[in-house]
């Protein structure tokens, strides 16, 4: 698997040209918010709503803004760019570390990570859980490769999975901490659907966004075995300069607990 790094790296997330339409739209909303034309307020998994302007794509009368809309990148696996993993039997699962179905059956290695997303109704001021919604999550492996797309792992579908939210609006995925590839801050992608049926039919996405990981956690993880390339890649990046998170990452930054030795837990509230 290491041999693919001798090749030119794939254009992860499509680069700046791929992200520009989304970023331009979000910056326009920020300018409108700054002019008091769009009263947007955000909330995170650990913070109360703030009165500061936000880059979110929507708002509610209760003052809780929707999760910022972001690009899905070129490797979503949802049928919008080639392969569609959402219609495969086995994609509905909590442990996404292994490939499933007719794939190669590989396992993604790395520091253990548990991701819990809590989907809530933005119109209720983040107070009402969205029971029965569904979340599809995906991210790169510790070498920065995306299953189904990147050289060497096109036959794998690990680090991808779907779950239905419980009565508290929560989904929890068992995975490994993603690596850092050139040009992008460490992150995970996710799509929210109105129901599990919508998700497995790959229709009616309600929200597409990304979760960011704090730098101190990234530094600790990347000091462990297998993340050597990530150390170098992260050293030239910052959240403030990232092409996706530069215009506001507070409501997308995961709350983290744990350690590189024992594994981490990431939590984020997702208003939709």
Concise synopsis of the structure shown:
The chain has helices spanning about 15-35, 195-200, 215-220, 230-235, and strands at about 110-120, 130, 135-140, 160-165, 170-175, 185-195, 205-210, 255-260, 265-270.
State the end-to-end distance: 38 Å
H and E order? HEEEEEEHEHHEE
Record field, number of beta strands:
9
State the secondary-structure class.
alpha+beta
**Radius of gyration (Å):** 18 Å
**Portion of residues within helices:** 10-25%
Topology:
Elements: H1 15-34, E1 112-121, E2 128-129, E3 134-138, E4 160-164, E5 170-176, E6 187-193, H2 196-200, E7 205-212, H3 215-222, H4 228-235, E8 255-259, E9 263-271
Parallel strand pairs: 1-9
Antiparallel strand pairs: 1-2, 1-5, 3-4, 3-6, 6-7, 8-9
Task: Outline the structure in words.
This protein is α+β, with helices and mostly antiparallel strands and 272 residues long. 15% of the residues lie in helices and 21% in strands. The chain is built from 4 helices and 9 strands. Strands 1, 2, 5, 8 and 9 form a 5-stranded mixed β-sheet that branches. Strand 1 and strand 2 form a beta hairpin. The longest helix has 20 residues. The N terminus is likely disordered.
Notable characteristics:
272 residues; alpha+beta; five-stranded mixed β-sheet; four-stranded antiparallel β-sheet; 4 helices; 15% helix; disordered N terminus
């Amino acid at each position: 698997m290491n041999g693919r790094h001798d090749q030119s790296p794939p254009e992860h997330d499509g680069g700046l040209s791929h992200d520009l339409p989304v970023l331009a739209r979000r910056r326009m909303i920020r300018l409108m918010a700054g002019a008091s034309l769009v009263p947007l307020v955000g909330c995170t998994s650990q913070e109360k709503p703030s009165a500061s302007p936000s880059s979110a794509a929507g708002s509610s009368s209760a003052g809780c803004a929707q999760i910022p809309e972001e690009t899905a990148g070129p490797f979503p696996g949802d049928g919008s760019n080639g392969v569609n993993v959402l219609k495969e039997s086995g994609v509905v699962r909590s442990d996404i570390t292994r490939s499933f179905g007719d794939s190669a059956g590989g396992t993604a290695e790395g520091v253990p990570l548990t991701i819990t997303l809590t989907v809530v109704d933005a119109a209720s001021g983040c107070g009402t859980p969205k029971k029965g919604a569904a979340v599809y999550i995906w991210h790169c492996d510790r070498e920065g490769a995306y299953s189904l797309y990147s050289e060497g792992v096109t036959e794998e579908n690990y680090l991808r999975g779907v779950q239905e939210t419980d009565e508290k609006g929560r989904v929890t995925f068992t995975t490994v901490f993603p690596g850092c590839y050139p040009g992008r801050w460490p992150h995970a992608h996710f799509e929210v659907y109105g129901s599990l049926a919508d998700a497995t039919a790959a229709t009616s996405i309600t929200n597409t966004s990304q979760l960011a990981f704090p730098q101190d956690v990234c530094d600790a993880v990347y000091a462990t075995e297998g993340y050597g390339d990530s150390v170098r890649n992260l050293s030239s990046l910052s959240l403030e300069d990232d092409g996706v998170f530069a215009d506001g990452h507070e409501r997308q930054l995961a709350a983290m607990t744990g350690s590189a030795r024992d594994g981490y837990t990431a939590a984020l509230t997702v208003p939709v």
